Each structure stands twice: as structure tokens, then as C-alpha cells.
Amino acid sequence: MKFKKHEIEKKIEPSSKYLRFFFFLSGIVATIAYRIIFLLDSFWIEVAWYVGTIGFILYFGHRTSVGNKRAQLVRDYKLVEVLEKSDIDEEEKSALLYLIETSLTSKARFNSVFIFILSILAFIISAIIDVYYFLFQ
């Protein structure tokens, strides 16, 4: 598959370092929010739960996107075949093949999409329940 230069640059270009840091921080904040729930009273438990869930939606949505992008690049550019044909040192080739092949076979992408989807569902269900109790209780 052939791509124009601007298409290649767009496909390969990573997100800005600030955006990557934002997603990293959202994962850290979400994890902390979930871990401190046992220390809080009922109102703050709910706040921490929503902060954690929204953070996981952001973080795992991003991880899903990154993993899919990496796997797609490996497929689009046939990087396994390119590397197998290369004349680099066998030990380096083995290491690179491991990295490239595992970007296609790793279950981490599926773990991320699973957590992302379940976090969205949990958020929606919880929001519906909270709105219902707010309106009718």
C-alpha cells in the first residue's frame, strides 16, 4: 500500500507531549481516586468514583487508540516482512521482530478497549441512577 508523504507523516506522527502527559495524568488521577475511596464519606466516595471512571475512560480510550495505531502501522507498512528481509544483525533483528510482532498479537489492546467500554457503561448506568434518585427521591 502506497501513501503520499503528508499521509505518512500524519499516520506516524505521535500526539503532542502535552496531550500524552494529559492522558498519563488522567490514568494516575483515576487510579488514585479509586484507591482512596475506602477513606472517604459517601459524598466524596461518589466524587472519587466519577473522577476515577472518567479518568479511566480517557486513559484507556487513549491506550486503545495508540495500540490500534501501532498495529495498523505494522500491517500497512508490512514491517515484519521488511525486517525479515533486512540485513541487520540477527540479534537486533530478533529483538525488533519481537517488538513489532507483539504489537500485532498483544492482548493489551483488547484489555484497554474492554476497560474503556466497561468504564463508559458504568459511567452511563451510574449517571442514570444518580439522576433518577435526584429527581424522584
How would you describe what is shown here?
This protein has 137 residues and is mostly helical. It is built from 6 helices and no strands. It has helices spanning 5-12, 17-35, 42-76, 79-85, 90-105, 108-136. The radius of gyration is 20 Å and the shape is elongated. The N and C termini lie far apart (59 Å). 12% of the residues are buried.
Please name the defining characteristics of this protein.
137 residues, mainly alpha, 6 helices
Ranges with pLDDT <50 over ≥5 residues? none
Task: Evaluate the radius of gyration.
Answer: 20 Å
Q: How many strand elements?
A: 0
Helix content class: over 70%
Could you tell me the mean pLDDT? 93
Query: For the report, how would you describe the main beta sheet?
Result: none
Distance between the termini: 59 Å
Structural class: mainly alpha
Determine the strand fraction and express it as a percent band.
under 5%
Principal-axis shape equals: elongated
Number of individual domains: 1
- From N to C, what is the helix and strand string? HHHHHH
Report the total helices: 6
